[in-house]
Design goal:
Layout lengths: L4 E6 L1 H21 L7 E6 L3 H8 L7 E8 L12 E4 L9 E9 L3 H12 L4 E9 L16 E6 L5 E2 L15 E4 L15
Parallel strand pairs: 2-3, 2-5, 5-6, 6-7
Antiparallel strand pairs: 1-9, 3-4, 8-9
Protein name: Hypoxanthine phosphoribosyltransferase
Enzyme class: transferase
Keywords: Cytoplasm, Glycosyltransferase, Magnesium, Metal-binding, Nucleotide-binding, Purine salvage, Transferase
Amino acid sequence: MEDDIENILWTSEDISNRVSELAAQLTHDISAVKSTELPVFVGVATGCFVFLADLVRRVSLPVSIDLVRVSSYGTGTLSNGSPSISSDLKLDVTDKHVVLVEDIVDTGNTLCWLIKHLKSKGASSVSVCTFLDKPSRRKVNIELIGKGKFYRGFECPDHFVVGYGMDFAELYRNLPYVGVLKPRCYQGVKEELPKN
């Protein structure tokens, strides 16, 4: 797999340090809000699973955890812009603060759609914690709910990246770092690259 990586953007050490910083910030900010309700961390499967696991183990608060599975990529490399839920929440988020955990935010379409979905389920506020953020690709303004905040691990250049839970065609998720995938690995895909 390593032969398929053009260059490494963030090492496992870089990632570990940044995840610790994010967890500390989330712990501080959530603690500052006086609430009897435990926050619910909702991971957007499948890409967030490594980040979510590392993040919640470093948050020094009791939290509930759930997953939602949303698809907008299919088998390609570009979002098709039409998110759909294939597996919804099991927990009731009514009147709760939700921290939506993403692997990467680029256009913002899926994220905005998910925030509206959580609002329709009764969440009192929604924060977003994304491992990677590609603001250069943003097509919509992300509007959080209530006292929600936007947290990001790293600002990502406009390349197709894999590792640390992120994939191409369900491969490379288990790489302990984030790297740029070599173009030869996705040749034949009929969509314009590079994108996540």
